[in-house]
Amino acid sequence: MNTSSTPELPVIRRLSEQVVNRIAAGEVIERPAAALKELVENALDSGARRIGIRLDRGGIDRIEVTDDGCGMSPDDLCLAVERHCTSKLRDETLVRISTLGFRGEALPSIGAAARLTVMSRQRGSDSAWSIRVEGGAVSPPEPCAGPAGTRVLVEDLFFATPARRKFLKSPRVESSHAENVVRRLALSAPHVAFRLEFDQRVVLDLPAQDRAARVAAILEAGQADGLLLVEGQRGDLKLSGYICAPSVHRATANGQMLLVNGRPVVDPVLRTAVRVAYRNVMEHGRHAVVALSLEIPPEQVDVNVHPAKTELRYADSAAVRALVIGALGRALGTGAGVAGVRPDLLQSRGPSPARIWYPPERSPDAADLSTRVAAPLAPLPPADPGLSPGFAESSLPLAALPAARKAVPDAMLEHADTTAAMAHPLGAAVAQVLGTYILSQTADGALVLVDQHAAHERLTHEILRAQYLGGEIRAQRLLLPEVVDLPARQVDVLLPFAAALARLGIEIEPFGGTSVLVRALPALLGKQNPAAMLRDLAEELEADELATPAQADALDSRMDAIIARMACHGSVRAGRRLTHEEMNALLRDMERTPRAGTCSHGRPTWLKLEKADLERMFGRR
């Protein structure tokens, strides 16, 4: 009887070149977008000025990239499809890498996993040459017809590795990833024209353009009313680019285009710095829209971390974070009116209707529109009782228009400051709508809507913040201390922070049981409901497990959120009627106050309708 058998000993053997290439291809080419990235990078490194890209079914069936770069000879083609053959490394130190590609893995990896055809012609050459690689098997180069430059065709991606192919997503998802790759590469080379087609449908068609125009085209910030310029330097590090105001944001980080030495990257250090810079001006859970370029000495960054070349290591990541946070903080520190939001209702609604004919806008007795809009400053007839009670006294009843039109010139002479006010970014106040929104007009004919509570909340927040950073928020002692009853849990949270809250102008002390005695409140907030404010502050402190009385630094990190809660309680409420002077004063303060484009919770404080937008809405253009 055979009681045992000798196990077969493992034998080390050399894998075939085809198997090696297929294994390596899994690292470099994980999906069609990864293959496309490598091909476009090669085109850019070849000096191309025009790049055409076509994908069928998200690149699963077909990827075609055509460029007008330097081209390759037959010998170059043979080397190009061999692993670790490249023309892009000038030495073997892997330090001063100035090209997008350098590893020599892209074409061999693609050829190992798909059917690859490369056709290329050098400038001045009599003919083009073609080479084909199918599942790792290389055919000799053959002459063919073709223009100067290179055309790469990838068909049946992952046909040689079915396990990888079955894990691909739908063509729609793969197309989305591919488009994102092309947008990032197009941003890195604004001097190059790009054309992208999906299933014979043009998705992107960008001419060669300057960086500002390319950024505007790539970010597609349709709601944005202007971009903010970013510039900063810290030693040998230099940061430049453009960002959207915090009122423009997205659900994912796909709107963050980041370049390091011209290379598109998905870098956690930079993304974290962007998130920190926007933290106090943007809604929680939303992501900023930015296009940033970092220039760093090559010896201070390692790009050879991953085959995809999108991850980096910095010699001094803290310096990089500090530069990005500081530069973005300065750009975001502008007052309202510089860059904001345009309402979604302006998005395309399909084909434009036929142009409507209107009578001439100028008639003998007609005043200029900008003059009539400013009419609320003049004495007006009593308001129509049918109007919403939320309208301010300055609202014009329809019946009063003919009389008001004739009275406007004299009224404007009495209020000559209106013209000057319209020259400001947020313009001159026209009316208060629904007791909540301030309507104003700018000199170029745009209409601006301001949320009075959101705007005043930010102004109050910034004043309180400045006082806190200056040492202490000024407190106003109550004539009669107020006793506030709170849940026992909130009392237990607040009382240990009594000393810290005193720096915020809030003086509290225990009053037995679940009661707290309030002796002072911040002077800036005026008369407030202490109970509501203390409940909110308790929630803020309770939300951060690291904020303890013994850890002052941890508490300071939460102070901006705590001050935001206080500012909300001390701001002008919706429904409060404002005088014309109060409205204009609020607009001017918004323009002077840093971060005033959004409230303390990250929502926009103002929206803008350009004259052209209004004309489109009414079918005038």
UniProtKB/TrEMBL annotation:
What GO molecular function annotations does the UniProt record carry, in alphabetical order? endonuclease activity
Record keywords: DNA damage, DNA repair, Endonuclease, Hydrolase, Nuclease
Q: Which family does it belong to?
A: Belongs to the DNA mismatch repair MutL/HexB family.
Query: Where does the MutL C-terminal dimerisation domain lie?
Result: 429-578
Identify this protein by name.
DNA mismatch repair protein MutL
Gene3D superfamilies linked to this entry: 3.30.230.10, Histidine kinase-like ATPase, C-terminal domain, MutL, C-terminal domain, dimerisation subdomain, MutL, C-terminal domain, regulatory subdomain
Q: What is the lineage of its organism?
A: Bacteria, Pseudomonadati, Pseudomonadota, Alphaproteobacteria, Acetobacterales
Please state the gene responsible for encoding this protein: mutL
Function description: This protein is involved in the repair of mismatches in DNA. It is required for dam-dependent methyl-directed DNA mismatch repair. May act as a 'molecular matchmaker', a protein that promotes the formation of a stable complex between two or more DNA-binding proteins in an ATP-dependent manner without itself being part of a final effector complex.
Q: Which domain of life is it from?
A: Bacteria
Q: Which organism is it from?
A: Komagataeibacter melomenusus
Q: Which SUPFAM superfamilies does UniProt cross-reference here? A: ATPase domain of HSP90 chaperone/DNA topoisomerase II/histidine kinase (SSF55874), DNA mismatch repair protein MutL (SSF118116), Ribosomal protein S5 domain 2-like (SSF54211)
Q: Which residues form the DNA mismatch repair protein S5 domain?
A: 215-333
